[in-house]
Amino acid sequence: MTNPIDGGSRTTTQLATDALRNKQPDAAARGQRGAQTGEQPSAADQASLSERLQAVRERIDNAPDVDMDKVAAIRQSIAEGNYPLDADRIASKFADLEGLLR
After folding, report:
1. Torsion angle, CA of 96/24/28/65, rounded to 10 degrees?
2. Phi/psi zone of residue 21: left (φ > 0), alpha (ψ -120 to 50 degrees), beta?
3. Is residue 59 a contact partner of residue 14, using CB atoms and an 8 Å limit?
4. Residues sharing a CB contact under 8 Å with residue 73, sequence separation 6 or more, in sequence order
5. pLDDT for 64
6. What is the pLDDT of residues 22-33, one digit of tens each?
7. How far apart are CA 102 and CA 97, in angstroms?
8. Quick one: 58 and 76 in the same domain?
9. Are 60 and 14 in contact (CB under 8 A)?
């Protein structure tokens, strides 16, 4: 499934976000390192990865569709200067996002 906002994969984005939140090497990361060193991930790692991917798939399937008409209307309002923007709230949300990336 493609993310209509940035064209990226929701699966990749969600996995990256979850990995940043956890800040622990997950089964996927351990499996990638194993592939780089020629090692095979353990059965437990594969099972954990499978469960995690299933959970991601469920979240994607339950995500609401993007209302492109509403997006277009908001873009037009912003371009015309008619959409109220709260600079302090936006800055706060960016700071929250930056905190997830550390």
Report:
1. -20
2. alpha
3. yes
4. none
5. 84
6. 544 444 455 555
7. 9
8. no
9. yes
Q: What's the mean pLDDT in 49-70?
A: 89
Same domain, 6 and 45: yes
Domain count, the chain: 2
Under a CB-based contact definition with an 8 Å cutoff, are residues 63 and 73 in contact?
Answer: no
Report the predicted TM-score, pTM, of the whole model to 2 decimal places: 0.32
Report which DSSP code applies to 9. B
Start-to-end CA distance of the chain, whole Å, equals: 28
* Domain boundaries, position 33: 1-66
Same domain for 14 and 47?
Answer: yes
Identify whether residues 57 and 31 lie together within a single domain.
yes
pLDDT at 13: 53
